[in-house]
């Protein structure tokens, strides 16, 4: 009989500008290590918001799935409403979003536009790229504090709106996003998840969903900037790509765009400011093959930087939350 995997004394390394790192000794079975240290690792995530575990040596999707399952005994969530396609592996484990390697994925909170979103994100690196490809993280509390108060107040009052246009050419189709293909099932899904929908004459689906932009953390009660206002904005799309999309689909046919909750456009300078605030608070630790990272999806935004060379990051989502179960009420926009 094999001896039990020993518990370790967690010593999380903190370096300025880098995500917290926990280094473990080589030779552990990742799933057994995860089972033995699940509580301590989750406590570290609660303390730091995100922790990258180095030394487990994750090697393949099956091993990643087994490790994720030990870390979240409540199970992994299915992926719904993604704005780009993912490749499913097994047991709730997915590839990272299909996104051009030379285009960054700006800071965001996963599925913050959905009615149900993951409270915890799990990432596993099976192949680190030769250049770039960092999954950065940024503390949503600090980001909120750095955004001008007048902007915060407006978003707190109105929320934000995500407009999507589903077609066969760009991004996820509605079949991929909702997991259903029959029109009646799509409409039922939208009604159940507080999504406005409209079918175009050519069969294209357009949707709009309003969500809060600032929420209180479900455990600590601390206020967090929680949305995808900047990432899914037309002003974050590379200019040449945006021009092409507007030319082909029209200004209202972009695959995604964000607005204030009352439907008014968000100015380009506000999106630029939000991305500048994110950049000022980004923590970066380059991936190494075999790494594991856990991220509190409410407290920490995450990003994916442009890269060169093959890159394989597997993703799991867990601890489902309902956006309207979080306390979003404030009277005066106070911090």
From TrEMBL:
The keyword Oxidoreductase applies. GO terms for biological process: antibiotic biosynthetic process. Keywords: Antibiotic biosynthesis, Iron, Oxidoreductase. GO terms for molecular function: oxidoreductase activity. Its cofactor is Fe(2+). InterPro entries: AlphaKG_dependent_hydroxylases, TauD-like_sf, TauD/TfdA-like. Gene3D superfamilies: Clavaminate synthase-like. Residues 26-315 form the TauD/TfdA-like domain. This is TauD/TfdA-like domain-containing protein. It comes from Arthrobacter globiformis (strain ATCC 8010 / DSM 20124 / JCM 1332 / NBRC 12137 / NCIMB 8907 / NRRL B-2979 / 168).
């Amino acid at each position: 009989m094999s001896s039990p995997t020993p518990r370790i004394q967690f010593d999380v390394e903190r370096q300025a500008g880098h995500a917290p790192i926990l280094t473990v000794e080589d030779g552990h079975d990742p799933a057994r290590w995860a089972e033995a240290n699940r509580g301590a690792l989750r406590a570290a995530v609660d303390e730091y918001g995100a922790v990258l575990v180095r030394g487990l040596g994750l090697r393949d999707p099956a091993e990643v799935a087994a490790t994720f399952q030990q870390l979240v005994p409540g199970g992994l969530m299915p992926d719904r409403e993604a704005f780009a396609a993912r490749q499913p592996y097994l047991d709730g484990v997915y590839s990272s979003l299909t996104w051009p390697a030379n285009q960054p994925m700006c800071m965001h909170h996963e599925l913050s536009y959905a009615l149900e979103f993951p409270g915890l994100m799990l990432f596993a690196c099976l192949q680190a790229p030769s250049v770039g490809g960092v999954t950065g993280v940024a503390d949503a509390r600090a980001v909120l504090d750095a955004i001008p108060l007048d902007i915060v107040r407006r978003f707190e009052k109105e929320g934000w709106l995500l407009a999507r246009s589903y077609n066969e050419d760009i991004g996820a189709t509605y079949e991929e996003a909702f997991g259903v293909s029959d029109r009646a099932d799509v409409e039922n899904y939208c009604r159940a998840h507080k999504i406005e929908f409209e079918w175009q004459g050519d069969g294209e689906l357009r949707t709009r969903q309003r969500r809060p932009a600032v929420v209180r953390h479900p455990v600590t009660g601390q206020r967090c900037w929680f949305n995808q206002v900047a990432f899914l904005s037309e002003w974050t799309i590379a200019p040449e790509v945006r021009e092409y999309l507007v030319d082909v689909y029209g200004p209202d046919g972009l695959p995604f765009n964000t607005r204030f909750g009352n439907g008014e456009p968000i100015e380009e300078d506000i999106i630029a400011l939000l991305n500048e605030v994110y950049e000022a608070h980004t923590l970066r630790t380059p991936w190494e093959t075999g790494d594991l990272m856990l991220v509190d999806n409410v407290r920490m935004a995450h990003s994916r930087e442009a890269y060169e060379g093959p890159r394989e990051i597997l993703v799991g989502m867990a601890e489902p939350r309902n956006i309207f179960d979080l306390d979003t009420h404030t009277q005066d926009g106070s911090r």
